[in-house]
Amino acid sequence: MAKEFPARFSRHPSETSIVLEHPRSADGSGLWRLAAESRTLDLNSPYSYLLWCRDHAGTSVIARDGEGGACGFVTGYLRPSAPDTLFVWQVAVADGQRGRGLAGRMLCWLADRQPGTRFLEATVTPDNTASTRLFESFARERSAELSRSALFAAEDFPVDGHEAEVLFRIGPFAP
């Protein structure tokens, strides 16, 4: 039975042909391209996206357009020291799909497929208003608390110019 998406993340008419599913190893190249085209994400090596799609497919989602191409993704993993916590590594949406709720749909889809998960975590830089809004909306839709705390300071990074990373923790989710 198809699950209804929350009102905030409802389907846009042009998204009816978008399919959400777990990625396969071969999807790594498409995820890398989307991350590169985002111009905002930290771009990892192409190899890391291939491995991610192999080793963390069950905690990640890819959005495919009507032609089967990648038009969005969320990569995540269950924290080894907190297996009830899904950590969201990256969220990307193709330019042509932005502003239509796809990122929220992917988060909901992914969270709904993680049995035993009670919390979602992600880090957001202070200037990333789009991600801040996404996670605030997700918390509201789940009727869950959202807490923020400093995780990594700018000086923790080995390169100049990287902003601090604020930990967003959402949960616990209602049973």
Question: What is the C-level CATH assignment?
Answer: Alpha Beta
What proportion of the residues form beta strands (DSSP E)?
25-35%
Provide the number of structural domains.
Answer: 1
Radius of gyration: 15 Å
**What is the CATH architecture assignment?**
3-Layer(aba) Sandwich
Poorly predicted tracts of residues? 1-15
CATH topology: Aminopeptidase
| Main sheet characteristics | 7 strands, mixed
Tally of individual helices: 4
**Helix-strand category:** alpha+beta
Q: Tally the beta strands.
A: 7
Strand order of the largest sheet: 1-2-3-4-5-7-6
Mean pLDDT: 90
Series of secondary-structure elements, N-terminal to C-terminal? EHHEEEHEHEE
**What is the terminal separation in angstroms?**
19 Å
Q: What share of the residues lie within helices?
A: 25-40%
Q: Determine the CATH superfamily.
A: Gcn5-related N-acetyltransferase (GNAT)
What is the overall silhouette? globular
Question: Would you mind describing this structure in some detail?
Answer:
The chain has 175 residues and is α+β, with helices and mostly antiparallel strands. Helix 1 (28-38) packs across helix 2 and helix 3 (102-112) packs across helix 4 (129-141). It has a single domain (17-170), classed as 3-Layer(aba) Sandwich (Aminopeptidase). It contains four helices and seven strands. It has helices at residues 28-38, 46-55, 102-112, 129-141, and strands at 19-21, 61-64, 70-79, 82-93, 119-124, 146-152, 165-170. The model is unreliable at 1-15 (pLDDT under 50). The protein has a seven-stranded mixed beta sheet. The protein is globular. Residues 18-158 form the N-acetyltransferase domain. InterPro entries: Acyl_CoA_acyltransferase (IPR016181), Ectoine_EctA (IPR012772), GNAT_dom (IPR000182).
